[in-house]
Design goal:
307 residues; alpha/beta; Alpha-Beta Plaits; 2 domains; 35% helix; elongated
Length: 307
């Protein structure tokens, strides 16, 4: 549904994006991650036709954004980072205005606006002026305007910013409900949000793609958790002596069975198992410890920067 091929963008002498390529399948939710200044917002502005790239192509639904911009924009719903709203209008009037602007048929506007108001939790404030509402409600109105017109593609830049915990859960649930029905690019600084809503993630840093994969493949094994019948102190001493083991933490001991968490710098499960067997201890469980998405993100970004 979305195909980005070798796009680059300069502002004066500053290269903001360099040879960025990625794709998003129909019905997929892609998490778009990167530190501040990485080029996320610039990429989204290019995808939505607000900015032209200096080189490269963007196709959405098979249409080239530069050659057929109106056909592309009919497919898009966009919530930008800085949510632009007409604060002197009521919520309902604003959404009717958006429906008219997007070319929704007159006979369908009322139904679409009412359904979107319900879906985004705006019924209680539908008749109030936008300028009198909290930032959280304004963000939900931004989400609502993106959904008006039933677009095939949603591009959401920090959709939960400014929301309270209950509202965040509601918007996340809404995004998850749209999976399979709409193609979504979700840019956020909240990495657990990606884990909860997205099927795949792309990480960008200093204008370049540093990783793109399914969430499970982006994380790495950082160690193992074991359950073994042994003396805790002897076990601790033995594990710390193994080459490749960074640290060992005894988590608990119950009826002579010790559970330990072992941080490793390499694949050392075979060495750990060998030492346990050599000492005549009973090994009940050995489970890989996966890094969180946050840990993987920091590792990928700092490695790319050569730190």
């Amino acid at each position: 549904m979305i195909e980005v091929s070798h796009i680059s963008k300069r502002f004066g002498h500053r290269l903001v994006l360099e040879n960025v390529s990625f794709y998003v399948e129909k019905g997929e939710i892609l998490g778009f991650l990167g530190p501040n200044g990485a080029g996320k917002t610039t990429t989204m502005r290019i995808l939505t036709g607000f900015l032209p790239p200096n080189s490269g192509t963007v196709r959405i639904g098979g249409y080239d954004i530069q050659k057929e911009p109106l056909k592309v924009k009919r497919l898009l719903g966009y919530l930008p980072e800085h949510n632009p709203l007409y604060t002197e209008m009521t919520v309902r009037d604003y959404l009717f205005f958006v429906a008219e602007t997007k070319g929704v048929e007159r006979s369908k506007r009322k139904t679409q606006v009412n359904e979107t108001i319900e879906r985004c939790g705006l019924r209680e404030v539908a008749s109030r002026l936008i300028g009198h509402l909290s930032k959280g409600y304004r963000q939900r109105i931004g989400m609502a305007q993106a959904l008006i017109g039933d677009p095939e593609v949603l591009i959401l830049d920090e959709p939960t910013i400014g929301l309270d915990p209950k509202q965040i859960l509601e918007i996340r649930q809404l995004i998850k409900e749209l999976a399979g029905k709409k193609t979504i690019i979700l840019s956020t600084h909240i990495l657990p949000e990606v884990s909860m809503t997205c099927t795949r993630a792309l990480i960008i840093n200093k204008g370049r793609v540093v990783a793109e994969d399914a969430l499970d493949n982006l994380t790495y094994t950082r160690g193992v958790s074991i359950s073994v019948r042994a003396n805790p102190q002897t076990l601790l001493s033995t594990l710390n002596s193994i080459d490749g083991v960074k640290s060992v933490a005894i988590e608990d001991e119950k009826e002579g069975i010790v559970r330990a968490s072992i941080e490793t710098g390499q694949e050392v499960r075979a060495k750990i198992a060998y030492n346990i067997i050599q000492n005549g201890w009973e090994l009940f469980e050995m489970t890989p410890l996966r890094a969180s998405l946050e840990e993987s993100f920091v590792r990928l970004v700092t490695e790319e920067e050569g730190q």
